[in-house]
Design a protein that fits this description.
It is built from eleven helices and seven strands. By secondary structure, the chain is mostly helical. The radius of gyration is 17 Å and the shape is globular. It starts with a strand and ends with a helix. Bound molecules: zinc ion.
Length: about 280
């Protein structure tokens, strides 16, 4: 699971919403997590396009691009993502991958260029298409907001679902693949907005959703991973990203492979190593 804008913050609950007692499950997961450097030796605040590329390719994207790049990857970075992403590398090992997120679109092969995030680029280039409306409505995709609460403004007329039901959908999807990726980015939006309601909704949903999917790691030969691209929501005193380390949660079979990780670019090689040894 990839969570955007989630760093390891300080102990003051007035600054870090994860420091108090409101989200005990998340608090424990982060306290036990491996801290990873997200700055990667490049000046400036870490950003999403290069951070996600570093996490999901294992290559120091901000160093190669000469700066941290926000939002959606530009053409040169897209090319790197297309060739070096974790789906492509697992594919070369004969392992299957999927991206569980739903896209509220009619044609799963056509996503406007301006909306192609790192995960969209890797999904289109390796898997050919994304999960879309039909899959979401039949519980075979998970909406980025977990419960579908943002979807009513986009023409979705169905029910909201609970974080537990969304987790069950994700676990069902994961049953059919060697590697399943789910991306949650409202944490980053919430951190930028400073909107208390959005911060509480996103952390509250994660508090219920993550333990359900982390339980995946309790089955034999199953590994659960959670990581972020940069800090943000752990410091609500500012509206920008932070230079805080990000948490890498690794639970289950092969989790020891991740103990030596110290930076974002270590995660993808460790995933490949874990797959090679099983
Ligand atoms: Zn951001």
């Amino acid at each position: 699971m990839f969570v955007d804008g989630l760093g390891i913050g300080g102990t003051d609950p007035a600054v870090n919403p994860l420091a108090g007692d409101r989200y005990p499950q998340l608090k424990k997961l982060i306290a036990d997590a491996i801290p990873l450097d997200a700055c990667l030796g490049v000046e400036g605040l870490p950003q999403s396009a290069t951070g996600q590329a570093a996490l999901l390719t294992g290559i120091n994207a901000p160093e190669i691009m000469g700066r941290h790049i926000e939002g959606f990857p530009p053409p040169a970075l897209k090319k790197l993502i297309q060739h070096e992403n974790i789906f492509a590398k697992l594919n070369r090992l004969g392992k299957t991958s999927t991206f569980a997120n739903a896209y509220w679109i009619d044609d799963p092969h056509r996503i406007p260029l301006r909306r192609q995030s790192v995960t969209t680029v890797m999904t289109l280039s390796v898997l050919g298409g994304v999960r879309h409306k039909n899959e979401l409505l039949s519980g075979k995709a998970v909406n980025h907001d977990i419960t579908r609460w943002t979807m009513h403004t986009r023409g979705y007329t169905g029910e909201l679902i609970s974080p537990e039901t969304a987790a069950a959908h994700l676990l069902n999807i994961a049953r059919d693949f060697d590697f399943t990726l789910f991306e949650y980015f409202l944490t980053d939006h919430a951190g930028h907005s400073g909107n208390t309601e959005l911060i509480e909704t996103s952390l509250g949903d994660l508090e219920r959703f993550i333990p359900e999917i982390a339980a995946f790691s309790e089955k034999p030969n199953h590994l659960f991973l959670l990581c972020s691209d940069h800090g943000n929501i752990e410091n609500i005193g500012i509206f920008t990203h932070t230079r805080n380390p990000v948490p890498l949660v690794a639970l289950g079979t092969g989790s020891e492979t991740f103990r030596s990780c110290t930076k974002l670019t270590d995660v993808s090689p460790a995933i490949l190593k874990a797959f090679k040894s099983c």
